[in-house]
Each structure stands twice: as C-alpha cells, then as structure tokens.
Amino acid sequence: MSSWRRLLAAAAVAALTLGAGAALVPAVATAAPLYPVSDGDPFYTAPPGLAAHKPGDVLRVRQLPDNWQFPTSHVWQVLFRSTGAEGQPIAADTTYVLPNNHQPNGPLLSYQPIINALGTKCRVENELYTSDPLLQIRQAPALNVALLRGWAVSLPDHLGPDMEYGAARLGGQITLDGIRAVQRLPQFLVQRSPVALAGYSGGGLATAWAAAMARSYAPELHIVGSAEGGVPMNLAKMAHALADHPHPAFGLAFAAALGLERAYPNQLDVTDQLNAQGRRLQHEIANGCTNEIMAFGAGHSAGQMTDNTNFMDDPAAWKLLNENSLELYQGIPDMPIFEWHSPTDVLIPVDSIENTLHRYCQAGVKVESMQVPSPDHLSAAVIGSPAAFDWLADRFADAPAPSNC
C-alpha cells in the first residue's frame, strides 16, 4: 500500500477516534489550503498587534445569553492569544460557564469537547446555541455534573480559528492558553483556582497533550489532575493498521487531512495532489460538521481522491506524523493522571496507551488507569465518565492521588 494511502488510512482511524490527526507529505504548494468560510461574527477576528501579546492574554470578552443546557449557570466567551501549529501567534477562544453556586477561587475544569469539523458553524459557541439537534454538543448536558458541584467550566475551541481538525499538539496549546485567559479575568472568580483537565477521544487527545505540555508550555498553572479517556496516542502506528479500501468514515479521514493542511500550510500540501473527485469532496466538506462530512465521504477511499499514488513517499511525512503522536512525545505530566479505555477498543492502539502510561509511571507520575468492559469506543466514554468525575473531585479536595502503576 502506498504511503499516501497508508497515511490517509491513518486519518480514517483518527477520525473514528474523533479527533486524532495524521500528517501529509511536505511539498511546495501552488494552491492554498481551502480555509473555512467566516461565520461573519467579528468577535473572532484577531486584533492588530497580536504578536505583541503573550500566550493567554485576553483580547476580547462578551457575555452570552443564558443557555438552556446549563440552567444554573451563566456563560461568557473569551478571545485570547495562543500559538499555532507552526509557532505563529493566533487568536483562539473558549466558552466559559460559571455556575451560581461557584465560590471565589473554587474549582475550574477545562473540558475539551469532541469536535469533528471543518466549518466555523461547528465552534463550541455556535453548537451550544443552535436549535439543530444534529449540531448540538452531545456532552454539554453531562457537564451539569460538574456545574452542580460548583465547578466553573472552560470549553476551548481546541481546533483553532481555522478549524484545524486533526492537529493534536495545537489542541494542547490552545487548552492551556484558554485556562490562562479565564484566570486573568477577575470577574470570573477563578484567578487562584485549582485547575483540572478532562476529555474523551478527540477531546481526550487535546487533554492529554495539554497535560504532557503543561510543564514546559504553561508551568505557572496549578493543574491538580487530568482525566483523559480513549486517547489515540500513536498516529504513525495507526497508519500501518488500516487496509486500503472504501470506508464509511472516510469523510472524517479526508477532513483530518484537510485540517492538517490548514495547520501546517508551510509543510503539508494536500490540495495540489487532489484529482477532480478529490477537489469536489474537498469543497463539499470544507465548511461541514460531523454529519455532513460523514454523509459526503461515506464509502470513498484514498485512492479515489488522487491520481498520483506515489506522492506520499517522503520520510518527512512520517516525521510530522510522529510529532503529533503523544506516545513519542518526551514531555511528562506534572500532575496525576486518570486514564480510561476499553482494552478491546479496535479504533485506537491500546499498546500505545500502555506504553505512554508506563513511561509516565517510570517518571514518578501518579497514574490510575481503568479498563472499561466494553468493546465499543464511544460507549466506553459513557461508562468511564462517572469514575473520572469522582476522581477529579478528589483532586480538587486535595486527597492523595491513587496509582496502579
């Protein structure tokens, strides 16, 4: 199987895990990536002089209408300075939910939702306030478990301003800068709060990267624990695991390829390699959310999208894929970890989870790993969530962190 097909196959697995990324070959691009159409909201526009700001600096704040999904809380949105995948300054955002029973400097949870999308209409804020049930964030009502405990919640748009679906490291950086931003706003009552991270699958990927990067990227943050489930920790390994054939989730695979081209426009070239069918699918999903992407891409394959089956044969492509694989990242979390997954999950390499956690344990990290008795990737999220929230409550209470290393 050609490298092109293996890597786009890896994106298919990544898409099934709802957020993992894959890398495409560096090339001299003659066509620009196809970026999402703006939703017309000027709030997201980066102000002049963005580079003069430090990561986490607040650029803009607005209060949003109270949301029916959070009946005991109020909602704000914060635009802040963060760092893009190639190191450039970007303006990212987070949605902040403050419950009525929150005490000053009480717990702050940064929850990274599952976002499988390329369109700006799929941002957290837009999906929280839509009346379309196909676009709503399905995890949102479950966050009342945290809100009723008095925890403030930050929901970062961890795909970045250009909806760079599949860019793993980027998600970690935006998550950490979102925490910085909300803690710099006195009216949010979390300036000295203990912080925890949580997320599953694609949200777990951003969560796990934030935990691993915190020591070097945001060492000043007081993060008491990270609960991360179903995390795809080695994208290169996924590339060798999926056969080259039409797949029902190919649309998400293709979306991951396009999102990574947006994230690494100076290193990756997808658009120039597409044939007419590939360009057509690119335009059909470039502004889509999960259901549209799935519908347009179902049953297609990598080989149908390009006429050049050898253009992926470049070691640099595998290097970039490795750079977005958490198993191969040498950073060590400086907080306790709760991790859960199904031991029979066929969508993610379970041995990569075990290898990563073993490395953390060897470095002295308190790790509690829970195997969920379910063969299904998504049902494992639901089954493991109650234990994850209880574990987080103990970290906020400053109880000793358990470990089954």
Automatic annotation (TrEMBL):
<dbReference type="GO" id="GO:0016042">
    <property type="term" value="P:lipid catabolic process"/>
</dbReference>
<dbReference type="InterPro" id="IPR029058">
    <property type="entry name" value="AB_hydrolase_fold"/>
</dbReference>
<protein>
    <submittedName>
        <fullName>Lipase family protein</fullName>
    </submittedName>
</protein>
<dbReference type="GO" id="GO:0004806">
    <property type="term" value="F:triacylglycerol lipase activity"/>
</dbReference>
<dbReference type="Pfam" id="PF03583">
    <property type="entry name" value="LIP"/>
</dbReference>
<dbReference type="InterPro" id="IPR005152">
    <property type="entry name" value="Lipase_secreted"/>
</dbReference>
<feature type="signal peptide">
    <location>
        <begin position="1"/>
        <end position="22"/>
    </location>
</feature>
<keyword id="KW-0732">Signal</keyword>
<dbReference type="InterPro" id="IPR006311">
    <property type="entry name" value="TAT_signal"/>
</dbReference>
